[in-house]
Amino acid sequence: MENFESLVTKFERLVYTVCYRMTGNEQDARDMTQETFLKLYTAVNSNKAFWENDKALASWLCKVASNRCVDELRKRRGVVLSLDDSESGSGYYDKETISPDDSPERSAISKEALENIQTAINALPPEQKQAVILRDVRGYSYEEVAEMTNSSVNTVKSRIFRGREKLKILLREYGEHYNT
Fold it and tell me: What is the extent of the structural domain holding 73?
């Protein structure tokens, strides 16, 4: 199905990034990404107009991906998630994050800061993690996050507030000093 393949190509990075941020692990992110696209494949014929609206489809895919990750994280509650990026050298770190113009020392500091942030995000309860990632990392509005998580806007705001507060504490523990 050619249209489906083009949808996968178009949205694969978005879905993978959400899944990676939620799971903190490449293999889990690949599995959750695949499951998300399987769900898309089964639903692709239900509403043709919906699939032609990129913004609505991106929102739906993020919702499905993040909800699937939350379900998996709930099952694993208490399990420490891996940050191992060594397999492919890709994943969490985007090219824009660490510039080739940076000195080796600056790149190492940037990479360490990103690892600390990912570790802190992984320590959040699944619902807070989901809300923080969708709002602060992916840039969705409170209303969009509420729709994606089937929650009220006030619940989303509460989860984000609590998640950010916990992140501040965790990042201070890691020796990072970020302005609020």
Answer: 2-173
The verdict on residue 121 lying in a domain is yes
Domain at 157, CATH number: 1.10.10.10
| Domain count within the chain | 1
Q: Which letter, b or e, does each residue of 118-129 get, where b requires 16 or more Cβ atoms within 10 Å of its Cβ?
A: bbbbbbbebbbb
Looking at residue 95, its pLDDT comes to 34
Which stretches of the chain drop beneath a pLDDT of 70?
Answer: 1-2, 45-51, 76-111, 175-180
Asked if the structure places residue 43 within a domain, the reply is yes
148 in Cβ contact with 101 (< 8 Å)? no
Given its phi and psi angles, is residue 179 left (phi above 0), alpha (psi -120 to 50 degrees) or beta?
Answer: beta
Place of tokens 């379900």: 71
User: Quick one: how many helices (H) and strands (E) in the chain?
Assistant: 8, 0
